[in-house]
Amino acid sequence: xxxxxxxxxxxxxxxxxxxxxxxxxxxxxxxxxxxxxxxxxxxxxxxxxxxxxxxxxxxxxxxxxxxxxxxxxxxxxxxxxxxxxxxxxxxxxxxxxxxxxxxxxxxxxxxxxxxxxxxxxxxxxxxxxxxxxxxxxxxxxxxxxxxxxxxxxxxxxxxxxxxxxxxxxxxxxxxxxxxxxxxxxxxxxxxxxxxxxxxxxxxxxxxxxxxxxxxxxxxxxxxxxxxxxxxxxxxxxxxxxxxxxxxxxxxxxxxxxxxxxxxxx
Length: 265
Prior knowledge:
Elements: H1 2-18, H2 22-45, E1 84-88, H3 97-101, E2 104-106, E3 112-114, E4 118-122, E5 129-131, E6 136-144, E7 148-156, E8 159-169, E9 176-177, E10 182-186, E11 199-205, E12 208-210, H4 220-264
Antiparallel strand pairs: 1-4, 2-3, 4-11, 5-10, 6-7, 6-9, 7-8, 8-10, 8-11, 11-12
């Protein structure tokens, strides 16, 4: 009886296996079982996460590289919404006589002095805000009887910006200022009073006034390099001139010596 039952069962299995969908179904079920077992094993062996206590997590990522700061370019010392014009220009030795005459500042009723900077006025003749042409440290912020309020800013590398004829100031000595920061309000002064409401702006390199109009919009490093080159060339010319003078003096001494020998003979 059992043999007949086993035989019938075997025949049923064979018939079932002959069907097309049976074998793929067996493979799919087997794959699902294996995948489930693998995932369970991986999850059961994974490390248990610890509870965060608010301490920063070190991801071992390299520190972000800081963005390189863009070099400043010399700008006019006025607020962005102000329309100004140059009333009196920097006195240039190489300029024409007419231009040089227009670069003279009236000191008193009859005395003139050369302009070592430039004077800016609003086209409307109104007061306007004065701002830092370059970033730096305020080394002077005081009122002068003839010049009005004066602000001086050390811009580094021997470069100094100077603001004069201010009605009022909003900075104090020792404070740090950034380019475009308000320094005060343009006003009038006894020296240069013919310019009306204005700001007198100077730029100096190693204590020597340089033309601020010439360097408008240029990088600070370019200004410094250009002035250093000029200074070196000037020193070289001075040395050559001194050498020529020495040669001349030597020739005169030799000539004098020859005259003495002639008199002796």
